[in-house]
Amino acid sequence: MTFSTFTAADAAELAVVIRSDFIESRHIGSAVVLDPHGSPVIRLGAPEVPVFTRSSLKPLQAIAAMSLGAQLTGPAAALATASHKSEAGHVSVVSSMLESAGLSVSDLQCPSAHPADGAFRRELQERARAQGDENTDPRSPLYFNCSGKHTAFLAAARAIGADTATYLDPDHPVQKKVAEVVTAFASEDPAAVGVDGCGAPVFALSLTGLARAIGRVMALGSGGADLGSASATGQDWTAYAGEARTLTEAVFADPWAIEGHGRPNTTVIERLGIFAKGGAEGVIVMATPAGYSVAVKCLDGSSRATGLVALTLLKLVGAFDAGPGTASAGERGASVGEGTASTASVREDASVTDGRTASVSDEEIDATIAAITDPVTGGTDSDGRTDVVGRLELGKDIADISERKWD
Questions:
Q1: Is residue 164 assigned to a domain?
Q2: Centroid of chain to Cα 129
Q3: 359 falls within a domain
Q4: What are the pLDDT digits (tens) for 16-26?
Q5: Is residue 365 part of a domain?
Q6: What segment(s) does the record annotate as region Disordered (predicted)?
Q7: DSSP SS3 for 254
């Protein structure tokens, strides 16, 4: 039997691509924004339907590895949750992680890949030519974008005395711990377990569960979670506060480690001070230190619009204005497109929109969106430079929310 994520009939219009004043493409999908208590503030499409979380799951996988004894701090902790572009710095850190755990590149079971960073790839090629090597084509599991996560798994296996040759087996103690952590943070059992692009188990969660999980990681890491209240209700995700703190501190201290200099996730973390983690097939999750979170899935698998959509939705609920520990107050409800396939709803939280203490301006948010969003190009201008002939814009369902909020 083949299971499925949501269908086009369930989806909302998240973004459109406009070329020469003609709508060329439409990105449809689902999205959800949660407040620090895990309550939906905005929902679009079908965020309750499971999606494969892909690399957006990595913070939970890193926390699981650390909880088993993988000694990860600083850039190493950030690399454990990274989809890195194999810059020289990334490779150096992962190599040190392997060495510290008494492991080698041959222990990695992720696919071999070329460094995605062109400068480092050329450096390796030049080094090989200078040494007279016959093979100057650098390719290794070390350069795969998930090598940091795999090294964390291996370090955890080594720490508990488990077999390192089978560390990707869903029944391996490390992967069982990952499943336990995922369930605890998401407060839902995965709907399915598959094989990710790197070979590791990947879980299908609702977007609501994914957003809830990463929001909790950020709230724990920043000290914004009410541990007493959560513990009283038996929410065992609070047991991982130390690991969450180590992870978030590492990511914010070295944003380059999570993806790469100038890359979208790194740019969002550096400029806006919020966590961002994209995944393959159009998935992204972001969370603020206060615990606001957003998860997005583009149904066509494209990531072109995910950053624009996620940041816009966080901006709409005032998530950038709330510091750690912000509590929600009364609410005013509004709905958009009720009864249609692309149902959207928005709830306005008075504690966020009143008495604003903005540490991130709307201009900074907009500038960041522009920095991570590729323009629509065509031909060259009079100076021979690539010409911009269009733009990516918010889809109707998000535009409707924005208009309703600010009317």
A1: no
A2: 38
A3: yes
A4: 999 999 999 99
A5: yes
A6: 326-387
A7: coil
